[in-house]
Write a structure and sequence with these properties.
single chain; about 80 residues; alpha+beta
Length: about 80
């Protein structure tokens, strides 16, 4: 999804382009399968360490995510 971020100058009612970017939204079912592999490979670790591994994986392949949001999603999908 292509997005653009603008700054609105109120005095002149002008919109100034700050940046354009492409938002990435992975398929959640595919992501769940990928995370399961990470969990399986880290079976002996504590839950917090597993979450850190998933966060690292997510950041490396998809970009930075909000950790609180990730924790809520993991809790609802993996019952942590």
């Amino acid at each position: 999804m292509s997005c653009s971020l603008f700054y609105r100058v109120s005095e002149s009612n002008e919109n100034r382009l700050i940046s354009s970017f492409t938002a990435v939204f992975p398929d959640l079912n595919a992501l769940k399968s990928e995370f399961q592999i990470v969990f399986d490979n880290n079976a002996g670790k504590k839950t917090s360490e597993k979450v850190d591994e998933v966060m690292g994986y997510l950041t490396e392949f998809y970009g930075k995510a909000d950790k609180d949001n990730l924790n809520r999603w993991l809790n609802s999908n993996f019952k942590f």
